[in-house]
Amino acid sequence: MKKLSFSKIAKISLLSTLVVSGISWNKNPEIKDANDKPIITIDGFTFSDLNQNGKLDKYEDYRLPVADRIQDLISKMTDDEKANMLIGIGMPGFDVITFKFTTEGFQGKVPGAAGGTYDLQRLGIPTVVVSDGPAGLRINPKRNNDPNYYYATAFPVGTLLASTWNTELINSVGKAMGNEVKEYGVDVLLGPGMNIHRNPLCGRNFEYYSEDPLLTGKISAAIVNGIQSNGVGTSVKHFAANNQERNRMGVNAHISERALREIYLRGFEISVKEAQPWTIMSSYNLLNGTYTSQRKDLLTTVLRDEWGFKGLVMTDWFGGYDGFAGPNSPFSPNTVSNVTEQLSAGNDLLMPGLPSQKQAILDNMKSGKLSAAVVNADLTRILELVMRSPSMNNYKYSEKPNLKANAEVTRQAAAEGTILLKNDNNALPFSSTAAPLAVFGVTSYDFISGGTGSGDVNEAYTISLIDGLTNSGFTIDKDLEGLYKPYSADQKAKELERREKSGGLMATPKRIEELELSKEIIESKANSSEIALITIGRNAGEGDDRKVDADFNLAPDEIALINKVSAAFHAKGKKVVVVLNIGGVIETASWKDAVDAILLPWQPGQEGGNSVADVFTGKVTPSGKLTMTFPVNYADTPSFKNWIGTPAENPTSVTYEEGVYVGYRYYNTFNVKPSYEFGYGLSYTSFDVADLKLSATAFANKMTATVTVKNTGKTAGKEVVELYLSAPSKNTDKPSSELKAFAKTNLLQPGESQTITLTLNPKDLASFVTAKNAWIAEAGAYKVAIGTSSLNIKQTADFSLAKELVVEKTNAAFAADTQFADLKH
Prior knowledge:
alpha/beta, 6-stranded mixed beta sheet, 21 helices, disordered N terminus
């Protein structure tokens, strides 16, 4: 693995519009930039002599168009330098022989970062640093021979951020994330993750946003725009159809072109068109027989030609290999990914970069299998990223982001994304401090801020539920605290030791069993406390998927705890609140009737306990809404029959037979009753949604729907307005309705109203028709349904489309490699 070296250049202004006449040379060898590079002065303009050859090369002249500078730079590169630039520089602190992370040896410019691009020392071009991840910057908090700490903020996980349904708020979260990326010296954040929640058991669903592509795309675009407003980049991932973790590097996903375009690619398309992420990360899996990193139809035809993507594509780490063990592992002798196919497909950068890949690139360049045109195109996109990076522009990062302000952002976002699933007889909000709170559940005392793997963050602290409640003025029952705290600390220490021995960062987290309490203890707390809280915790992460037993379903010890506490407290006329500190969907139907209220704060980041307390007390009125369906039983899941592929223990093939019927599209169309439906969430106040008006009765180029939302309750709050569209299905089988627009109100005071305007564009009416390579809107009657969930519809209105409309022509892509039929209604 190549040892990193980080050259820098003087910060220069891009004055490409200036015209300079009467150029004269005035080179003074005594004048140097901040990194000991000579300065060239031309009539008052100063340039870094990056390659120190005593003259101003085109690529050093910031007045010239970037494209011209890049081509000049490429012309100066040797084949060896070109091959290096097409692969990464390895993973600092990672040993490719033992496949383990180590704190020994060289750690890179930003210790804990995931890698970067090759630095062309001879030409004065620095490395571009990339780092995880979706819930905040994942870097090492401790560094060799350095007494300081470099913590980053653990923001709420993706499921929670999307549950806000508030793109403006998510944009502010992105701005805060980007502040930390830039001030810690990183150029590109490897996120957001935006794969579809195809199945509740995907181990990385916590990183992702939704079962719906529109919501996924809009939330992603908001956070990408926020992050990139700092002048740093993002890498939206994993492109595409990486919807399971088990054998993610070797599984072949068979998906129809329609399901791909309508469900699994649509969110990426929205994000690209509305935010232009600097980079996109191709996924591990095969798609219809070919690795995504080798699919030209995916990475060039669709992504660049059809959608207009301008950035570069990088592989996921070691993408193009079929796993980390066996004969085709990246660490097996003489094995190499198909670098020519990857680079020719439009996958510009192979990460993290292996010596075998470099040698294969050199061999194929020499033989002509890898053409000069392909190499030039890939290098151009890589160097465009380099040119715009803070590293290239010598940004003087402070190592001191605004962690205090960012903690406030995460606290606000976590509170707004918290969902009130149940609230019988106004059990919440609760504010009495007359008696100590009876707080049960091991996770109450050790809150889970986020998932594991590359989506984890090394934060300075996590506010537990009891911390947050204490900060809000409550006292915690001392007997329970005295039992739970030592048990929690002991069990967590054992769990962390187990993880370290069984895979470290990639170890599958295990649930800590609940502390068994006697009937007498629980009954005594029902006498002395006014209310009971029980936290149910779940964690998951990269490299493995969740299980049905004792994970999706509650474990026997959890069921026993809920039943015992509920029986004791209800016998005294007191209420029981369950807090779900989870990353993905769990079963709720069998036990929800036993309790009075259920709060779902997901994995809410480092301020989680404070955020939950804000909602618990009513300081914040809950306004989160589900972005995925909670089924009654796991077997109700539309992908149940074909999850997780075959053979189940190490699947090499998985068929998406449910087609476009993912999530609520399936439940609502096939009348399968959920426990909690997509878009659902309660409030402490009430709203009236009325006066729906469409801008026309017949669709032309676009249509607007306006609706008025009034707070009819006694508490200030926010409401989400969801627009579902039902389209004619004479020619193409379609879901009964699909989300096409949404908006969140401002904070409405009691009696206050707000008019919301939602827009429908031609593509919102269209479905993808594979036989015609086109998005087509059928002629006929359309119904707009405005709801506060996918089933709670408040207003409807109809309009018509006079004749069939071909909205967009596409190129044929994603040919099937096996025959199967999509589910139809």
